[in-house]
Every structure is written in C-alpha cells, then in structure tokens.
C-alpha cells in the first residue's frame, strides 16, 4: 500500500527549479513566471535603490507576487494530499485543519490580550 502512494507522489513530484510556483504564478498573474528576480522586476529602481514612495509600491507589488505564489503552492499541496487520501480521510483531515485554525486563532487572541 505504501509503495503505491510513494510511487504516485514520486510521479507527481515537481522539479526544484520553481516549476510549481512559476506555473501557478502565470495562472494567477497573467504571465509572471518566477518568484525571484532583480530589483527592477520587483518594482524597485536602480537609481533610487528602491526606497521612497516609488520603492514602497514596488516592494508591495513584489510582496503580492510572492504571496500569490505561496498561496498557489499551498493549494497545490492540499490538492495532492487530498488525492492520496480516501474520502473519509479527506473529511477528517479537512475537519482537523479547520479545528486547528480555529484553536490557533483563539490562542492568538488570548496571547495578544495578555501581552497588552
């Protein structure tokens, strides 16, 4: 049983050259193909060093690209996990994730109250 799952995951494994994020980025951003890049690609200017109002906008645009790519990788990973699990396991897994998020949020709210 385990070997079938391992074989399936091995077949679906993505290369280490950022192929997973580049495909998702192109899908979400309409053609942006990579996460890294120079400061000009991130919206910063070479002359200004990426500081000031223009640089802040560039950094925010770059951050948005990275966040979209990360969301896409998370979604793709979740889909792969759900493909491997049985329907009952999928329900239990998703319910567990939901409970974990709720409990983490409650813990975070309590922690903020005690810090302030």
UniProtKB/TrEMBL annotation:
Bias kind Gly residues: ranges: 45-55
GO molecular function: sequence-specific DNA binding
Domain of life according to the entry: Eukaryota
Transmembrane segments: none
Sequence ranges assigned to domain DOG1 in this UniProt record: 1-114
Biased composition (Basic and acidic residues): 1-14
An individual GO BP term: DNA-templated transcription
InterPro entries: Seed_Dev/Stress_Resp_Reg, TGA_domain
Region named Disordered: 1-55
Protein name as annotated: DOG1 domain-containing protein
The organism of origin for this protein: Hevea brasiliensis
